[in-house]
Amino acid sequence: MIRPVFTELVLFLTPFVAYALYLAATRKGLLDSKSWPLGRVGWLMIIAFVMMIGSLFALAEFGGVPPGSIYTPAHVEKGKLVPGKSS
What we know:
The protein is mainly alpha-helical. The chain is 57% helix and 11% strand. It contains 2 helices and 4 strands.
């Protein structure tokens, strides 16, 4: 569960980190509030949300097992837990 959360967090922070690197490279005042106007932060948030939604769509569309697969749920056999599997 932590991997998908971490992936989405990294995708959300990527535009902000890229902009911060741009500010650092151009020496425009990385921590100056004038370098982070509300409109620009709004656009960075929109880009971040689009990236997150795109990754969720890509994972849902292209991830997982092939269509038509049969899932066998986890069960107990002879006192031992047998993990679920897709075939």
